[in-house]
Design a protein that fits this description.
single chain; alpha/beta; 8-stranded parallel sheet; 12 strands
């Protein structure tokens, strides 16, 4: 940080600094707005998303995180459930014995390095508009206008969607748009063995201890360190909006550290 910026930061009260940051970020988003709304690929996505609004009204779905606890979870019980998988969940397909109903990935580094894998999936896939440089448009590929800044919970994912520092928060907004009455989190451990400054890009030096597969972010893979505080801010927003609509998010992650949602025992969710 430059001396001038450091001086301004020390002089101005935090609420005012936050307002300054939000104004700056808003101008940055304004530059993205025209393409994100009027590019032919986005117009096509917006039209197709309209048909998915409340497609699962009153039903339940499982959002599958990628934490180590997924290895302790009997995923075979989800074969006849609506499920949403994220990022490199496809590495678990052989053990699962089925593919999730929906797939979601909005992180640039993940899509850049796994574009061929994602392009090869056959379920409806939702990706960030930023990742269009690595992916080709297809009938069941949807480009979401997601941003790093501008905290909000989007009821309408055809418009701007805040990422909340975790793909799981985007998945919750997608689940809300699809109309799910109850959303159940599994594999959302909310705990990482790798430490460091949030959002810093690092290169993995060996096996990955933070996900269900040691090769998930294996040696040489570039990824960003988690920002758990911002993630929790997003989760709290999700909780508030689901409850205000008479819906619910519960957490069935085995041994998970997240304390925002009501905890439930995974095994009690099935007849």
């Amino acid at each position: 940080m430059s001396p001038l910026k450091e001086t301004i930061k020390n002089i101005l009260p935090e609420p005012l600094m936050a307002a300054v940051r939000e104004t700056r970020d808003a101008f940055g988003r304004l530059e993205q707005w025209p393409e994100a709304n009027f590019h032919p690929w986005r117009r096509d996505t917006i039209q197709r998303l309209a048909k998915l609004k409340d497609a699962h009204r009153g039903e339940r779905c499982f959002i599958m995180g990628n934490g180590p606890s997924l290895k302790q979870t009997d995923l075979s019980r989800l074969q006849n459930e609506y499920t949403m998988g994220m990022n490199r969940i496809y590495m678990a397909f052989p053990e699962m014995g089925f593919k999730p109903t929906y797939f979601l990935s909005v992180n640039d580094l993940v899509v850049e390095q796994c574009a061929e894998d994602i392009q090869g999936l056959d379920m409806p896939r939702f990706v960030s508009w930023r990742t269009r440089k690595w992916l080709k448009p297809e009938e069941n590929l949807f480009f979401l206008y997601t941003t790093y800044t501008g905290p909000k919970f989007a009821h309408d994912i055809r418009r701007r969607v805040w990422e909340g520092a975790t793909v799981t928060f985007v998945a919750l907004q997608l689940a809300y748009y699809l109309g799910f009455q109850q959303v159940i989190l599994i594999g959302v451990d909310h705990s990482f063995a790798t430490k460091g400054k949030p959002n810093t890009t690092v290169v993995s030096e060996g096996d990955d201890p933070n996900h269900f597969n040691p090769g998930y972010f294996g040696k040489g893979f570039r990824w960003q360190l988690p920002d758990l505080d911002t993630s929790e801010r997003g989760y709290l927003l999700a909780k508030q909006h689901f409850e205000a609509a008479g819906r619910e998010v519960v957490d069935a992650t085995i041994g998970g550290k997240l304390q925002v949602f009501r905890k439930v025992n995974y095994d009690t969710l099935f007849d």
